[in-house]
Amino acid sequence: MSVEEAAARIAARGESSKRFARDPVNQAMINNWTEAIGDTDPRYAEGIAPPAMAQVWTMNGLHGQRAEDDPLGAMMTVLDEAGFTSVVATNSEQNYHRHLRVGEHVAATTELESVVGPKRTALGEGWFVTTRTSWWVGDELVADMLFRVLKFAPPPSSPGALRPVISRDTEFFWEGTKAGELRIQRWGETLRHPPGPMPPDGDLDAKPDWVVASGRGTVHSFVVHHRPAVPGKKLPFVIALVELEEGVRMLGELIGADPAEVHIGQPVTATFVRVDDDLTLPAWKVAR
C-alpha cells in the first residue's frame, strides 16, 4: 500500500474517539503555567484558565500511550515503515472559543486533515502531515488546533557538529553568531530567548527586532556529558545554561573548562565556534 493510499484510509475513519484529560481543569496547574510563562492576568488566579493551556489538559504524560484510533500515530507508523523515520513540528494554528474554568473536564478528538508529499526540504525528502485536534467540554467545542509535522528521511550520517534547524524566526540569531554577536529577540521592551514567532502578549500586529547582548553572564545550571558519544565532541564536556546580564538564559558548551571546577554562579563570557561557512555555534568560556 502506498503512502497516499494509507493516508486516504486513515482520513476516511474520521475523528478519533474522545480522549479525556487525566484531571479536570485545576487551579494548581494554572498557577504553575502562569508562573512559568510570566502571565500576571488576575483572572487566571480566580478559576479561569489561560486559553493557550488547551493542549496541556489532554497531554498523555510521561508514560502515556497513544489511543489505537489516533490518526497521527497511525500515519507516523506508515511513514516510519516507508523509511521516513525523522520528525520535526513545523507549525500549529490554534483557535480558542471560550475560556476554560476550574472543574471542567476536557476531552480531545483528532482527525487527519492532509498528507502532502513527497517534498524535498533542507532536512531531507519527506511528507507534511496535518491533523486537526478539537477540545470539548461535553458537546461544546472550546478550542481547536491545526498541527503540522514534517516526517522526513534523514540523510546518511556523517562526522561533524550536530546542526540546528534554522527557521525564519531564528535566522537572525545564527547570522549574529557568524558575525560574532549574541543577538536576543526583542518584542517592545521584552527580551526573549529562544526566539519565537509570537510576542509574549499575543499581539498579532507586533513585529520583533533584536539587540546585541554583552556576552557576559553567570552559570545558572550545567551538566557534564559523559555518554553517549556526540559527533565532533571529545568526552566529557560541559553544557551550561548561562544567565546573561540582559536577563535571558542561553545554552552552550563551556569551552576548555575542567568539569570538576565548574560551579553555579561562575562568571563566563561568550565565545564562538566556527563549524564551516554556514554555521557558527555560540559557546562560553570562563571569565578571567
Explain this structure.
With 288 residues, this protein is of the alpha+beta class. The chain has two domains: 3-152, Thiol Ester Dehydrase, Chain A (Roll), CATH 3.10.129.10; 171-286, OB fold (Dihydrolipoamide Acetyltransferase, E2P), CATH 2.40.50.840. Helix content is 15%, strand content 39%. The protein has five helices and 15 strands. The chain has helices at residues 3-12, 27-37, 54-57, 71-81, 171-178, and strands at 19-20, 48-49, 86-96, 100-101, 107-121, 124-137, 140-152, 183-187, 190-192, 209-212, 216-225, 237-244, 249-254, 267-276, 279-286. The strands form four sheets. Strands 1-5-6-7-3 form a five-stranded antiparallel beta sheet, with helices on both faces. A five-stranded mixed beta barrel has the order 11-12-13-15-14. A three-stranded antiparallel beta sheet has the order 9-8-10, with helices on one face. A hairpin with a 2-residue loop joins strand 8 (183-187) and strand 9 (190-192). Helix 1 (3-12) packs antiparallel against helix 4. The protein is globular, with a radius of gyration of 22 Å. The model has no long low-confidence stretch (mean pLDDT 92).
